[in-house]
């Protein structure tokens, strides 16, 4: 939201499609006001932050720590006058969904201005979850803390722009300090990171740790719905690369926008497919024998692509098309690698093969294929394992003979792609609600583990944020003026919010716990809410991925800056809805008697 001056008189309604009436000729301005939904600028009163951010933050406030509680959520609007009853959930609502992470996603307020505030705070968690895969609740709590502390200084007449600038510069400095605090994760610590993110569920942590041991840190781990009531782990051979479908019309699973096929055949073409007649022979085979077909080519031009999509939509053929990974000579080598792992043959003009003559004997096989917008996963049955090992040994020889660093990197990526197995965690549960809850927890644990592998780990339990708050006095020396330093102090107070909530959820005094933790010089010393002890959290396996903590700091600061520097918002004007009143029941003595044939009573 940007700063906008409030007009001296009530403005006319604006159109979401037409330009602002002030920018139109006089004769067109009146017409523009009649188009689209009515939007009204409203002055932003920062004192309304309790109505804005309270429900969004409070809904997630019960989550942090091992003693945090789940939140039952139901999609229902909260009336503005009931917003103080955050702990009870929506009026009349029943828990229909367990939300272990971003409970605020289900919070909706009746007042559009207040609901906009909830959405603003929710952005901090959503951005963190999109990038790091975890840390949604912590981001919301930090954003709520920054806004609450910022309101106090704005009420004293401070410059919001300088306050926001101080918050932003402090966030950048804290990220630099965080990188110095983090270290690479050890193999035995993967289970701890996954378990902490899954709510101290070490069964999940050990399963994810076992998955990465079997496929390696660069391997692929997927989560699927299981067919039993218990979780299970399966490892299959496969390959993944960053190329997605050429048209969304190939999608078969609209829930996650992917094209998924089992027992699929794969056509590999090292050229651009422009004429749809070139595909007639292989497509007729796919229709006749009823097998799915994945086409991987340098490109598929419009005429050929439209022919494929039209026949797919009509149900004639199960097909999907993607571009080959990489470019030039590397593209050719990647196609050969895919041919090795699937048992197919690349159609290449320089080898004397033509696409018109390519039949079923050229096709590779895959037990499962999943094509998304930006990635493709090919799972094989392991029948080509010997050929793959031979190909990997050949590429390793090229690595030893190569002197260029870039070339070694490319060859290393090909080795990882060829030899990378895929671990599949199948989630089992008794009910749909339990399945969704367990799947969300396992996804959070997996994302946290991948983030820890990528950027390392720091001490968890909110302790790393407390230690960062001790660095702010040093950061303030580099800021330009008093108001920017006040912005740094705001961040210092907000960094204690997660630790306070963790302690409160465990039945302890947050203020007392923070004072005792900061009094100890050991950077890993903190409060373990699981057992109620003060100990070395790093040694106890209480770890947080550095990437998650970094995203929490960055995104909460961005949201707080947007809020504190906003004076006017534009919301859609609500139309009054007529009250529907049920007609009264007729008097009892006016109800006609029931026919004897119906009542069974003789009259």
Strand content: 15-25%
CATH homologous superfamily assignment of the largest domain: GroEL-like equatorial domain
This entry's quaternary arrangement is: single chain
Helix percent band: 40-55%
| Biggest sheet character | 9 strands, mixed
Query: How many β strands by DSSP?
Result: 17
CATH architecture of the largest domain: Orthogonal Bundle
**What is the CATH class of the largest domain?**
Mainly Alpha
Note the overall shape: globular
How many helices? The count is 20
**Model regions low in confidence, pLDDT < 50 over at least 5 residues:** 1-43, 54-62, 70-103, 598-603
Overall tally of domains: 3
Structural class by sheet pairing and helices:
alpha/beta
Query: End-to-end distance, in Å?
Result: 75 Å
The average pLDDT is: 78
Rg, Cα atoms, Å: 30 Å
CATH topology of the largest domain: GROEL, domain 1
Folded structure, characterized:
- It contains 20 helices and 17 strands.
- Helix 8 (280-289) links the parallel strand 6 (259-273) and strand 7.
- It starts with 25 loop residues before the first helix and ends with a helix.
- It has helices at 26-33, 49-61, 112-132, 136-154, 160-181, 190-197, 202-215, 280-289, 302-313, 328-342, 385-401, 405-419, 432-455, 463-469, 472-475, 482-494, 497-505, 510-518, 546-564, 596-599, and strands at residues 39-43, 76-78, 107-109, 220-225, 232-241, 259-273, 293-300, 319-323, 346-347, 364-371, 376-379, 421-427, 457-459, 525-528, 533-536, 543-545, 568-572.
- It is globular.
- The strands form five sheets. Strands 4, 5, 6, 7, 8, 9, 10, 11 and 12 form a nine-stranded mixed β-sheet that branches.
- The model is unreliable at 1-43, 54-62, 70-103 and 598-603 (pLDDT under 50).
- Helices cover 44% and strands 16% of the residues.
- With 603 residues, the chain is of the alpha/beta class.
- It has three domains: 42-183 and 457-573, Orthogonal Bundle (GROEL, domain 1), CATH 1.10.560; 187-231 and 428-455, GROEL, domain 2; 237-409, GroEL, CATH 3.50.7.
